[in-house]
Amino acid sequence: MRAELRWPLCRQTVTLYHADPAARQVTRVVVRGAFLDHRRREVMDTASQSGTAFLLIIPERSARWGVDYTLAPHDRVYDGEGPEVSYDAWPAFVPASVPGLAAVQYVDPKVLGGAPSHLEAGGWWTHAGSGAHSLSN
Q: How many CB atoms lie within 10 A of CB 105?
């Protein structure tokens, strides 16, 4: 018998954006049944720095990574059903300019009992557009 997780918090709609420079296009996919959590992140040192972080969870039952959608570092996640975005508009389509938008830094597919279970993705950035690496493009 295969173990199955329940996803009571995965009730949100998100829009995923993936830019393809070779084709000069942006792919847009709407996923229903996801969990997107935005939060503040603070780093305390001699000069306190704060920014925004997010965690995205997409259960395999909602959409299959690599089949129904693509998600990779530098992609974008929009809270809700987002607009179409042209490739020429992509450089300006950043969290600092678009409320509800997040920029992906990592993608971590999870497996349970030998089968895909869910995808976790996340990232963080300052209001200047930097995080572990620049998320302004």
A: 19
Question: pLDDT higher for 2 or 49?
Answer: 49
Asked whether the predicted pLDDT for residue 14 surpasses 90, the reply is yes
Lowest mean pLDDT among 9-18, 47-56, 61-70, 115-124: 47-56
What average pLDDT does range 52-59 have in this prediction?
92
d(CA 65, CA 55): 16
Q: Give the neighbor-by-neighbor strand order of the sheet with 101-103.
A: 101-103, 76-79, 12-20, 25-43, 49-59, 115-125, 106-112
Count helices and strands in the chain by DSSP H and E runs: 0, 7
First to last CA, the chain: 45
- Decide: 94 and 129 in contact? Cβ < 8 Å: yes
Closest to 66 measured CA to CA, from 121, 17, 109: 109
